[in-house]
């Protein structure tokens, strides 16, 4: 897919490594700590957990002086570029810059004093620190005057809610960018988050048409992972598939590590990043199932995440009915039958084991295959032979009555 061309910014230093955002850089994944920044040990532990999960950039909130005072220690104990999220107090931005932060996020809805913004721009320019201008749907109208906010929003709702909120966010961005551009500061990334997926899509499309700054995508306050994932992936996936977006944060009311995992999975699925570990394919199960497949899939997923660092495809299929076809292209596959599983490596059958041994044998085949790939003795995605499905009666006892030569997609009990 063709990516929209943007300017490029760089976040990080020699110690953390530099993450490029925009231009020809791959789409990066960000997240934000959920605890207090001034609680150094907890903050460092959370950041390191996020980095281990694959976060490219981590943001921390700095509402208090105690938070910015904690930054030097946090920076010294972490190895991922950090962003200070500044709301209301421009002094926090100056303190964070002084502490060595890698990037600043400003919300135009909360800091609009031109002199204050100018002083942050000057401090960032001096140290080559980029700034994200992050507009949020919830803070574009003066919060102190609630009556006015209600009246204004009411007017927008009555007319065309999406259009007016979008116009308001873009106007705020333009207004703010004017300050940056008048000072010749272009080390900028922009975002305009909404909690409405359709509004987010429309707004980012419009922003990408108007500006060439790198875009930080996000749906704000998306909710718990169960529903937030759908809202976020619908909006961000649509934009990314159109080539819009240079970095992203998925926001859940949940453990931020899930934000990283789901952000990466979305980019892998769209082919915008190369996988760093195994890709798991699994059947949804149906009335043909004769093993505890959900548990097996869960166990396989956890073990693969721990032990496999090459992007091999692993298929866990409940039976031989559609399994061979659906597992086509898998490097390692297991087809279950009546409390048994037959395991294949690149099409070659290597084992027929009872249910309680499927997990350990499958993983040992994955580990061995990983070693072969690392040694250059096997190539990912390159099957050696076509999978010859097992005899479902003699070998798996799955109840399937007929089996065509070499294929099992025409059977008397129907298909998936
Ligand atoms: S038919 Fe498909 S969904 Fe049903 S158990 Fe077999 S592989 Fe799984």
Structural overview:
With 416 residues, the chain is α/β, with parallel strands linked by helices. It has 2 domains: 8-269, Dihydropteroate synthase-like (TIM Barrel); 277-416, Sulfite Reductase Hemoprotein, domain 1, CATH 3.30.413. Helix content is 41%, strand content 18%. It has 12 helices and 15 strands. The strands form 3 sheets. Strands 8-7-6-5-4-3-10-9 form an 8-stranded parallel sheet. Strands 11-12-13-14-15 form a 5-stranded mixed sheet. Strands 1-2 form a two-stranded antiparallel ribbon. Strand 3, helix 1 (40-53) and strand 4 (57-61) form a beta-alpha-beta unit. Helix 6 packs parallel to helix 7 and helix 7 packs parallel to helix 8. The radius of gyration is 26 Å and the shape is elongated. It starts with 7 loop residues before the first strand and ends in a 41-residue tail after the last helix. Iron/sulfur cluster is lined by residues 283-286, 288-289, 317-319, 321-323, 416.
């Amino acid at each position: 897919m063709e990516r929209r061309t943007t300017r490029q910014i760089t976040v990080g230093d020699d110690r953390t490594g530099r993450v490029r955002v925009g231009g020809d850089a791959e789409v990066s994944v960000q997240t934000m700590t959920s605890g207090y920044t001034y609680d150094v040990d907890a903050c460092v532990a959370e950041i390191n957990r996020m980095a281990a999960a694959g976060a490219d950039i981590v943001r921390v909130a700095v509402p208090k002086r105690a938070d910015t005072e904690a930054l030097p220690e946090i920076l010294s104990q972490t190895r991922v570029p950090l962003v200070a999220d500044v709301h209301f107090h421009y002094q926090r931005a100056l303190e964070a810059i002084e502490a060595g932060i890698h990037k600043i996020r400003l919300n135009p809805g909360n800091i609009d004093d031109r002199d204050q913004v100018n002083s942050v721009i000057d401090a960032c320019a001096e140290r080559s620190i980029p700034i994200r201008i992050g507009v949020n749907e919830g803070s574009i109208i003066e919060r102190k005057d609630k009556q006015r906010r209600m009246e204004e929003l009411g007017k927008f709702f009555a007319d065309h809610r999406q259009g007016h909120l979008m116009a308001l966010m873009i106007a705020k961005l333009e207004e703010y960018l004017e300050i940056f551009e008048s000072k010749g500061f272009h080390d900028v990334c922009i975002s305009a988050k909404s909690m409405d997926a359709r509004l987010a899509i429309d707004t980012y499309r419009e922003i990408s048409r108007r500006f060439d700054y790198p875009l930080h995508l996000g749906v704000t306050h998306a909710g718990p992972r169960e529903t937030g994932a759908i809202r976020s992936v619908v909006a961000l996936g649509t934009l990314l598939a159109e080539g819009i977006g240079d970095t992203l944060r998925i926001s859940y009311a949940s453990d931020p590590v899930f934000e990283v995992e789901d952000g990466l999975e979305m980019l892998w699925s769209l082919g915008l990043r190369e996988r760093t570990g195994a890709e798991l394919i699994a059947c949804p199960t149906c009335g043909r199932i004769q093993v505890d497949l959900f548990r097996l899939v869960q166990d396989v997923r956890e073990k693969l995440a721990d032990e496999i660092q090459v992007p091999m495809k692993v298929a866990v299929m409940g039976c031989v009915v559609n399994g061979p076809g659906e597992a086509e292209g898998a490097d390692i596959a297991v087809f279950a039958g009546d409390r048994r599983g037959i395991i294949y490596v690149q099409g070659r059958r290597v084992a027929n084991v009872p249910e309680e041994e499927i997990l350990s044998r499958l993983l040992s085949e994955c580990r061995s295959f990983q070693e072969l790939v690392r040694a250059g003795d096997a190539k990912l995605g390159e099957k050696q032979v076509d999978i010859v499905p097992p005899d479902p009666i003699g070998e798996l006892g799955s109840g399937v009555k007929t089996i065509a030569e070499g294929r099992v997609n025409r059977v008397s009990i129907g298909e998936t």
